[in-house]
Design goal:
15 strands; 2 domains; alpha/beta; Rossmann fold; VC0802-like; binds S-adenosylmethionine; single chain; 377 residues; 24% strand
């Protein structure tokens, strides 16, 4: 039997996530705004949580309703027979996000959902589930947009983009799911070299290594929301994870390299790569971008995310860097695919090389583009 799901992602990544899900065997895959709907059996749900690189969480919608107040929300939640999803012996938690709605207080809305479920159990059985906000056995996600509420079981619980290898934050690190989504969208062939000469905390290089090794992003994660569900099939899950573990390559098929002008960034990148289990496979160096050179051998892909500033006046400081990038790419990286992710179109054009494509994405709330430049042959 298949169930309907909604995998959430950053806007702009929907087509990439849809392709990932289709590749895993999901049915009725439908990219929407900020996520992708699909259908699948429990094995597919487990595989999706383990394998998808670009999703934030995978939700199983239980009820949708138009509600204008927390009390209407309470009444709507009471219409569901919750015995189908948990028992009083289960712990629960409700995570809530509210946008442009008459219901303004998200924590109060979450509490009304929890009350509705607990009251139903108390009236029917005399006992009720208790709350565990950290690691509930059944985690719920309430999304309210305008007056439309969707309440779902959260099969992931902690965001899937939190891979666990990046405890240390450098300045402006890229979200892991976005970095990997850009790599997947860029058309980079994992059998060819990958270089990020402004690598910061090393996200492109580390995510690229996991792709090239066929290593699922959730391989060492300790907990997925579905593991607390009453119907959780531990044997099936262990088989899926063991199978994935056996399929991880030991060596990269081609060089992956990162460099950055800041010494602390390079140290962070090395530490993160070690935590991600790929420290021995990626080369990280402290270099100004003008001193970075392609590895010997066949051409590959250069991808980077230079600073783009958010305040007025930042542009002036950064224009020199973007012009330098253009000169360095045109001089030393001819024949390579060169991709630059930035939130400033004007700065991107200062690179001065012919533009092949520019694809729109969001970095949080900031509209950004992935630019591909022609470096000549
Ligand atoms: C927005 S951050 C990159 C973040 C990175 N993608 C990550 O996930 O952590 C930009 C990086 O460019 C580096 N950078 C700035 N100017 C540079 C230069 N001239 N040569 C090399 N790196 C430079 C900065 O030190 C910074 O780490």
């Amino acid at each position: 039997m298949t169930t309907g799901y909604f995998a959430t992602c950053a806007r702009g990544l929907e087509p990439v996530l849809a392709r990932e899900l289709t590749g895993l065997g999901a049915a009725d895959v439908g990219p929407g705004r900020g996520g992708v709907t699909f259908r699948g059996d429990p094995a597919l749900l487990y595989r999706a949580n383990l394998w998808v690189r670009t999703a934030v969480r995978i939700l199983r919608p239980v009820i949708e309703a138009d509600v204008r107040s927390p009390d209407e929300l309470y009444d709507a939640v009471r219409t569901v027979d919750w015995a189908a999803f948990l028992t009083p012996a289960h712990t629960l938690a409700v995570d809530c996000n509210v946008r442009d709605s008459a219901i303004t207080h998200s924590q109060y809305a979450a509490r009304r959902v929890k009350d509705a479920i607990c009251d139903q159990f108390r009236e029917r059985t005399g006992s009720r589930p208790s709350v565990d906000p950290e690691r509930p056995m059944v985690g719920l996600n309430l999304h309210v947009h305008r007056d439309h509420a969707t309440l779902s079981l959260d099969s992931s619980w902690d965001s899937l983009h939190k891979r666990g290898y990046r405890p240390i934050q450098t300045r402006a690190p890229l979200n892991e799911a976005l970095a990997t989504g850009l790599l997947l969208r860029s058309g980079w062939d994992p059998a060819t070299p990958l270089v990020d000469p402004l690598c910061g905390s090393g996200t492109f290089a580390i995510e690229g290594a996991w792709i090239a090794l066929n290593r699922p992003p959730g391989l060492t994660r300790k907990w997925f929301g579905f593991q607390g569900w009453p119907e959780f099939d531990r044997e099936l899950w262990n088989a899926i994870r063991d199978d994935a573990r056996r399929g991880v390559r030991k060596e990269l098929p081609a060089t992956i390299r990162g460099s950055d002008v800041r010494r602390d960034a390079v140290e962070f990148a090395r530490t993160n790569a070690r935590t991600a289990g790929v420290g021995h496979l990626i080369e990280f160096d402290r270099l100004d971008v003008t001193d970075a050179r392609p590895p010997t051998g066949p051409a590959g892909t250069l991808i980077c995310n230079p600073p783009y500033g958010e305040r007025i006046g930042d542009e002036k400081d950064l224009v020199g860097l973007y012009r330098t990038l253009g000169k360095a790419f045109g001089t030393y990286w001819a024949g390579w695919r060169v991709l630059v992710f930035t939130g400033n179109d004007w700065l991107a054009r200062q690179i001065g090389l012919p533009v092949k494509t520019s694809l729109p994405f969001f970095n949080g709330k900031i509209p950004c583009r992935l630019w591909e430049f022609d470096t000549g042959r």
